[in-house]
Write a structure and sequence with these properties.
Elements lengths: L2 H12 L4 E6 L12 H12 L4 H25 L3 H6 L4 H10 L5 H16 L6 H28 L1 E8 L2 E10 L4 E8 L5 E6 L3 H16 L6 H8 L2
Antiparallel strand pairs: 1-2, 2-3, 3-4, 4-5
Length: about 230
Amino acid sequence: MNKKEELKQFLVKNFEELESDAFSGTNINHPPFELFPRDYLQFAEFDLKGTNDSSLINCVSNIKRAMDCQIDTFFYSYNLFEFFKSKRLGIDKKLEFLKKAGVFNSGSLSRLNAIRNKMEHDFVVPKVQDIELYFDLVSAFVSVLENHILMLEIYAESTWYMQENGGLVGFKVQYFIGEPKIIVSWGKRGEDRTILESSLDNVEEFSFFLKVFFLISKTYIHTSKKYIVSQLID
């Protein structure tokens, strides 16, 4: 059984029984940017008030910059930026990774890409209604990624426990920003623990471990355990 399936099976079987014990954060990486996503959204909002074609086209460009900047800010925070840069992976691959990590749902991403491609490749002046929808989707996207950055700063390590056959089973998930890597472990006190480690050597596996990290972190902000388990079942 591979590590992804082993982790999935353990959580689907046991997560609803686990109780939170403690959590701690880490110092995230900050990108060396002069402008950030909210700056570009502000520029776009100003452009949207314009009355000529140039303003509308500038608005689309600034919305796209906001999206690109937020993605790179996220990757910087999780120390993933240099990996994606070294592999020369573009926006579509980055979005695919975020989708697999459960950051943003595929329906919204497909809609976002459809609007973006229409505006960029059809050489027509974009309609105000399309721009407003594009702006709203990217604004939501920026907010979602901001929240996921905060998860690392607050919940880089969390521990859980449950009773099983008269013994206490401990469960821990950790994001190591320096590597980067994710380690998940569980087992009874005094006995050998199951330890699963995932790094960027296997991006597919790592994206799933990151999804688990996000889902478990969301438990602390009033997301039900039943919902979290449902998101682990493909």
